[in-house]
């Protein structure tokens, strides 16, 4: 009986020794260091699973503020987590996603296993997948999107280059192919490159024009809000005396309209700040981003002008009420004289 217990114990220890490294590897396949406390860990972990299946170790790091040096803080966290000494010495299969919330910084780094697949895609992943979620105030969505986008890129890598190993009698054919390729380059590729250069210049011109429109719209919207702010201060000062200067019905109407105008003014201030924050999160906004922001600024300016017009109408009403009040004593004096 005692020998059977020893056999059972030895088997249990053997199973544990075999399974423990696998469990440890699985627990370390997704590392979430959410110092900013902004993430839904379960959703991020689930989104990372396709990358884990590709053999990746996924590291997600957030901090509220990196204290002015985002990269230095990231390297310090990598060392503290026992992952690497810095971003230049990552393990081959490691993917690092890092965001400093208040500093509006986001970085993506990959080990040598994924460096080729991600070489020209990192900026696209940041701008089109990670940053939109951050700008919308939903960091979890941003990380989920960028992890899914990375998995899509890695699972469909660019086809590897192949080299011919033919020699001897095949060398003449190789030279013939080379000559045909040079001819194709002269007649097709060069004109295509020139056309692309022209298109790039046109795209640059469009971007510059759109940027100018964006700057003008932003400036106009900001000026409209500033002017309306001064007008609202003047209106608030007048509104304090409405209840003692005019009949209750008119005073209540003026108070209602003043409250509505004040709320609308606060709403457009919030909208202006939202557009500012969204654009600040885009280091290199595209034409479509600039167009959308310019349109939003134009709409804010129109709302500001409408609120200003309503305040002017309230001033007209006050003048009419003042005129009526001034006529009452004159009518009383006429009645006494008659």
Give the strand order of the largest sheet, numbering strands 1, 2, ... along the chain. 1-2-3-4
Radius of gyration: 34 Å
Q: What kind of sheet is the major sheet?
A: 4 strands, mixed
Q: Which CATH top level class of the largest domain fits?
A: Mainly Alpha
Number of domains: 2
- Overall geometry comes to elongated
Number of strands: 4
Approximate strand percentage: 5-15%
- The H-and-E topology, N to C, reads as HEHEHEEHHHHHHH
Q: How many helices in DSSP terms?
A: 10
Can you tell me the CATH topology of the largest domain? Butyryl-CoA Dehydrogenase, subunit A, domain 3
- CATH architecture name of the largest domain: Up-down Bundle
Helix content: over 70%
Output mean pLDDT.
82
Based on secondary structure, the structural category is alpha/beta
Q: Whole-Å distance between the termini?
A: 132 Å
- Uncertain segments are 15-27, 159-172
